[in-house]
Amino acid sequence: MESCPLPIEVCEAIMDALSYHRISMVLDRREQNRSRIRQRTLCACALTCRAWRARAQHLLRAHPYLANQHSVSLLSASVRAIRDQWTPYVSILRLNGGGGVQRSGHSTTSPSTTKNPDTGISMASTTDLLLCPFPNLHTFYASVITMDFGPRLLRMRPPLFFAISTLLLDRCTFDSVRAMFDVVWACPNVSFLVIVNSHLRKEVLSDEAAVLLASVGCGSRTQCKRLAAAKLWGTPFNTPSIHLRGRAFGLALTRLTLAFRYLETARALTCFLKCAFPALSDIDITLSDISNNFTTPYEPPCLLSILTAALDRPDNLRHITFRGPHDYDATSALDKGPACCQRFVGASSTEGTGSGEDARPLRERLPGLAELVVMLSPQCAGLCEAYIVSVLPGTGNVLKFVQ
Length: 403
What we know:
With 403 residues, the chain is α/β, with parallel strands linked by helices. 30% of the residues lie in helices and 15% in strands. It contains 13 helices and 15 strands. The chain has an eleven-stranded parallel beta sheet, sandwiched between helices. The protein has a two-stranded parallel sheet with strand order 3-5. Strands 7-9 form a two-stranded parallel ribbon. Helix 9 links the parallel strand 11 (255-260) and strand 12 (282-287). Mean pLDDT is 77; it is low at 99-119, 330-334 and 349-357.
């Protein structure tokens, strides 16, 4: 066999490129295939020659990708046997249960329509792994995982979570809302959090329990004190009946991204933002469906009105981004304007309030607002821009349209 004509530095740079990890919000099938191919290729590199083995093994240990319960058990056994050769090198830990893979992009489906079986990876058998310190582990990515650690173990602050700064929980199963927060609170240094479509075995949370949960999140001196940005999509954040309070995420958060299926589910903002996020300066909200799917006899106010009414400190908000489908229908725009824009900024007769609850100009409602970004579809960009400008007069220097 001929030796490789490339310098070893070039070969190691290629292996480094193979191990590159792009943080995506949902570990879809395409990203899963990429991760498997990267791992198999690095394994092949480690077996190619002695010159390649050291770098390939280092990358395999730094970014382990565990796709089934057996691989989790093997990692736990390896850590117990040769802890010093594993724990100092791990920087990104990815676990993928594999069940209920959805297509690329975020989803805001209800838990009843999200496949999240308990037959994937269970964390109940990883107690030894939790008790091992990983000093350089900065990213923990769990997709379709049953988070059945046990509340007592998590509240002991296991060393596994101590250094984590980026926590991504994609379609994971929790016993309750409190169990979900126990996982978040177990990471005292987390600064970026992503939670997508959690599956809750106990989906009922009374208003009194929600208030108590929020007080626990704000009362501790260590929980979520460094959390600066969060992306929260789907259940339980789009479920008004759960009465979730944003204060449970601490008081340091400045950037927040939310997604809702319908405008009616966006009413959860009223409870979620109440007396929460005093430092919030940037919010990004997505409506995935603008159809008239209302279960109440009255039409809810527009998204902009829900947001401005829910904010505890509207003066601090600097940037707003609205995302969602825009399909301009001329027949529906004869009376009040396009239905797609009404969901976001309201009808022209009420200057963006939708239900007439707050007719004040946007400048009075959000005096500190520097930018309002509205994502538009190319086919109706011109018509929607004209309508939104007419609904929100005097905001020409604030409005920004992106196709």
